[in-house]
Amino acid sequence: MQTLKVELGERSYPIHIGEGLLDRPELLKPYIAGKQVAIVSNATVAPLYMERLTQALAGYNVLPIVLPDGEAFKNWETLQLIFDALLTARHDRRTTVIALGGGVIGDMAGFAAACYQRGVDFIQVPTTLLSQVDSSVGGKTGINHPLGKNMVGAFYQPNAVLIDTASLNTLPERELSAGLAEVIKYGLICDEPFLTWLEENVDRLRGLDQVALTTAIERSCAAKAAVVGADERESGVRATLNLGHTFGHAIETHMGYGVWLHGEAVAAGTVMALEMSARLGWISEQERDRGIRLFQRAGLPVVPPEDMTPEHFLEHMAVDKKVIDGRLRLVLLRRMGEAVVTDEYPKEVLQATLVADYRALVDQLRG
Amino acid sequence: MQTLKVELGERSYPIHIGEGLLDRPELLKPYIAGKQVAIVSNATVAPLYMERLTQALAGYNVLPIVLPDGEAFKNWETLQLIFDALLTARHDRRTTVIALGGGVIGDMAGFAAACYQRGVDFIQVPTTLLSQVDSSVGGKTGINHPLGKNMVGAFYQPNAVLIDTASLNTLPERELSAGLAEVIKYGLICDEPFLTWLEENVDRLRGLDQVALTTAIERSCAAKAAVVGADERESGVRATLNLGHTFGHAIETHMGYGVWLHGEAVAAGTVMALEMSARLGWISEQERDRGIRLFQRAGLPVVPPEDMTPEHFLEHMAVDKKVIDGRLRLVLLRRMGEAVVTDEYPKEVLQATLVADYRALVDQLRG
């Protein structure tokens, strides 16, 4: 087991990473203040792990809350099911909410914990690679609104994060790849040597090699923990974590939530950010192609949806949270392993990036 | 004008109190970061003050958001109207939300500000006495749930509070009295000399004497600011501010939100807390009666609803946020001017308090 600490003053918390941690309740118990525990999961994950986690918490008054599965349910109506269950079971303000599932469950259970009686204790037990390396770290919680993704939410830190790498054994291959998109992202934005490691290990990761997975998760969480510790509320450097997300959110919004997985949209979106960085002359075309190839080897889409026009992108990006007083700030690569957040670019370069022929770009890679 | 400061480290903020402050935008402008401002008000207050505040903010991009009036609308559906308006107008994360109205508007606009894009700037412009002396100070925001009052919300501090005492000139008499319930509360829990001042000035307050109002508001806010500054998240002393609220919430829940005004329920609830404190021998019956008389002179109910049984009270109090692991903690008076939060009392005394004949108690005061 490896343990990282996210440094946030009095709200610092540990991330435990290792195989079989679901069966080690002594890692959770120091973070549960009362007798009441609510485990929030979904209809896919609950049959796999709910009983095991409930048994590990013998002696507590455990309330299982099972939500429908999918990004399409990341909305107020589903969140309300959590409040309904907590209130019906008379959970008081000393209850502890545990998120058992992927990013959607973590975001919703975290937001519910942030709001229930104005805030109760919260623990993350992420079971997907994406949530293990991304959404479980850093305290972003929330739900979608019909007019935009993650538009309603809170910054709310968990008391602890428990990552059982063995839970990836039941994860669909497509979701494993989606998680790798964020792993690759850390290499691109702040850790160039990690890119090289990934190029050497991507097949092992896809083959569920537990040692490689532990390393990748630990290194990803450490990168994110460092960035979040330096800038909890995303006034500066934290925004670099959104590499590919502005383009990616536009893709998700255009396609309808849940049609593309978040990591898939981030991969295609990051390819667009690489293309724009290359057009600005900040990285070379070879470096851009290096990124594209790694995403491809991870089993990810590298081309935006065929029917998306530049107008579609601009329309959806204009309500992105990174818009400051009408200027569109983007995360781009100053060089491989170093991201910047900037609105200082010629508008024509953004336009050229939106109309670029990504299919041709990818075809040429095969040659 | 008087200015208080609520001390909360980097989240400290000023409270400006005085006549005609709505026409002094220079007090607001230092707290507005971007160009976008959303003023959240209701159908009663907006016709009175929305245009004036909008004119004071000439030069900003002002979005008026007018909600239906009343505690019955303090729910998710109404909150959603704020998010809808902000997103439709493409307000970004640098927008500033201003609450213009009473406690319901402050709670909802504050919760919307806490959640919109995970938190935007927030200013309170309370226009009722209740919100001026209570809900605008301290950062409690939220909405009601069908199963309980204020069950969903956030601790979220405003950047500034602007209290124009002249706005009380348009306040219905019944609501002025409801506000006085919280004013009297401060005397009871932490400022015995203020009780004496109130006994001498309650008629002037009800007559809208601006000098007396300014003093009462300033002293109330100072009391609350001191308590909140010492205990922002209500782990200890802050809970004393809830004197009368546990009984009062039960009354509000039983009657249906909005039938009794919050301050009215608090007045009757506080009489019950006085009665229980007297039964415990902590205050004398004369002191209890002193409190009852002051509430009566302020135009407030001092007897719970006739049809409420002890069972009704216990049922509604069991989901109160002050329940810790099944023990019912109550705010009681150790002596006049000193409240305590405690679950150490014989259950029989609570039972006797619930069955006490308050009507007879009040009748005897007339004799």
UniProtKB/TrEMBL annotation, chains A, B:
The keyword Lyase applies. GO terms for biological process: amino acid biosynthetic process; aromatic amino acid family biosynthetic process; chorismate biosynthetic process. It comes from Pseudomonas abietaniphila. One of its GO terms (cellular component) is cytoplasm. InterPro entries: Dehydroquinate_synthase, DHQ_synth_AroB, DHQ_synth_fam, DHQS/DOIS_N, DHQS_C. This is 3-dehydroquinate synthase. Zn(2+) binds at E182, H245, H262. Gene3D superfamilies: 3.40.50.1970, Dehydroquinate synthase-like - alpha domain. Catalyzes the conversion of 3-deoxy-D-arabino-heptulosonate 7-phosphate (DAHP) to dehydroquinate (DHQ). CDD domains: DHQS. Binds 1 divalent metal cation per subunit. Can use either Co(2+) or Zn(2+). It is found in: Cytoplasm.
